[in-house]
Write a structure and sequence with these properties.
single chain; 12 helices; globular
Length: about 240
């Protein structure tokens, strides 16, 4: 039994991490679990996950609520997105604070924001038809969370590929200014981290299509940014 399972108990651990669908069958992997069809979402488990959402501040309460909110977000439940908004505001709302829930297995940096990005994009996908019917392209909670993520990304770099792809796909032009600020911040660093280097390349590919005039001015000031062939088809 893992130390976390000992901390939260076997029952809660199963609710948070089981790969079972509503019929008790196993999803093949985590992606299948998060991206399952609406009709395959285990509704009884959803009820139990909602009961695990609390706004307490002990490590145990935060970890349980965060893990429950990830699944609820992925399955389009409002309780999940509300908790992620609260979590981002409380723990990642300014550059001096953080609450690392996970780290990159090779490079060791905090991947919490990347986990949040993944599940809020699942939430967006499940709500996209309803939002379109209302004349909206993004739900207000996700817009707020993405704004916080991009504000923070200028100095506390994480891998931004996923959020850049989503902004391009969904045509969310209101984030362009923040992405430009991120790109400039990375280029002005004396020593680029691994993530700021790759984020700069991904942002160049993004702005080649989105705003070539801005990109031309940037490369005139900072120099031409070389793009590996393997990157061009990702954005």
């Amino acid at each position: 039994m893992s130390s976390f399972e000992e901390l939260v108990g076997e029952k809660i651990y199963h609710i948070l991490y089981s790969y079972e669908d509503k019929y008790g069958n196993e999803f093949e992997d985590r992606d299948d679990l998060l991206l399952c069809e609406d009709e395959d979402i285990p509704l009884e488990r959803v009820k139990k996950l909602k009961l695990l959402i609390s706004y307490g501040s002990s490590d145990k309460e935060v970890i349980i609520a965060f893990e429950a909110a990830k699944l609820l977000c992925a399955w389009g439940e409002v309780e999940g997105i509300k908790y992620m908004k609260y979590f981002m505001e409380k723990y990642y709302g300014d550059l001096r604070s953080s609450y690392p829930m996970s780290h990159h297995r090779l490079y060791g940096y905090d991947t919490t924001v990347e986990e949040i990005e993944e599940v809020i994009m699942c939430y967006q996908a499940r709500w996209s038809d309803r939002l379109a019917a209302q004349g909206n392209s993004i739900c207000p909670e996700i817009r707020h969370i993405v704004t916080l993520i991009l504000n923070r990304a200028k100095l506390c770099e994480h891998n931004m590929l996923g959020i850049i792809q989503e902004i391009k796909q969904e045509k969310w032009h209101y984030f362009d200014t923040q992405l430009k600020e991120c790109m400039i911040a990375y280029l002005e660093k004396e020593d680029q981290s691994r993530n700021s280097y790759w984020n700069t390349i991904d942002l160049k590919v993004f702005f080649e299509e989105r705003d070539p005039e801005f990109l031309s001015k940037i490369e005139e000031k900072y120099g031409v940014i070389d793009i590996p062939d393997s990157v061009r088809n990702q954005i």
